[in-house]
Amino acid sequence: MNILMTRPLIDSEDLMEKLFSKGHKILHLPTLKILSLNMNPINPDKYNAFVFTSSNAVRNLKLLNENKKIICFCVGSITEKIARQFGFQNTVSAGGNVNALKNLIENSKSISEKSKIAYFCGDNISYNLDSELKKEGFDIIKIINYSAEKIISLSEENKKIIEKNVPDLIFVYSLRSAQSFIEIIKNHSLYPLMTGSTVMCISKKVADFFKLVGWKKIEVFNPGEELLKL
């Protein structure tokens, strides 16, 4: 099976290796470029908890000291894994869903509504987690520490590779990535070739976008369950 991954290599390398080991042919078409922002270093001693809705939020974190005992609420297992690699010792995962992350924070016995929470995210989000938690009385501050820039270019060499190996499955991990992907394939005359592929969407919002642009074969998956969808 030909499988196209749209995530940056740093986020998809492990999964690509697993797919390759099972005999699948892997195509890589990154749709977003992650850029670190010049944020001021954060003093973890001033907060009771950190919240991360992506692994990029962890990778682009800057701290004033090495206090890594603070509890970290992570949207999914990959983000939690990166937080662990970053040195954080007290991490919990919501299983890949932002609504589940909100419920996890609200029901946690490790913090209270008086706790001070820092929420790290990118410049383009689809769910205002901080606003929803503020409605529940939590003291939370949103800190944007990275940006996701659209990639809309494609080399002639990679275009030829895709034309010769039309993907059976395409994994898309965000609405912004979906928008960038459509721009790429339209700009490089690949749209008619690709619409016969099944697009695997990380959320209903992403799936609705593909329906809107006329895609026919659409499925929704949970992060971490990609192999189960094959």
Number of domains: 2
* Number of DSSP-assigned strands: 11
The major β-sheet equals: 6 strands, mixed
> What is the tally of helical segments?
9
* Strand residues, percent: 15-25%
Shape: elongated
CATH fold category name of the largest domain: Rossmann fold
Architecture overview:
This protein has 2 domains: 2-33 and 150-229, Rossmann fold (3-Layer(aba) Sandwich), CATH 3.40.50.10090; 40-147, Rossmann fold (3-Layer(aba) Sandwich). β5 (71-74), α3 and β6 form a beta-alpha-beta unit. The chain has 230 residues and is an alpha/beta fold. It has 9 helices and 11 strands. Helix content is 34%, strand content 24%. It has helices at 9-21, 55-59, 77-85, 98-106, 129-135, 156-164, 175-187, 191-194, 204-212, and strands at 2-5, 25-28, 32-36, 49-52, 71-74, 90-93, 116-122, 139-150, 169-172, 198-201, 218-220. The protein starts with a strand and ends in a 10-residue tail after the last strand. The mean pLDDT is 93. The strands form 2 sheets. A 6-stranded mixed β-sheet has the order 3-8-7-4-5-6, sandwiched between helices. A 5-stranded parallel β-sheet has the order 2-1-9-10-11, sandwiched between helices.
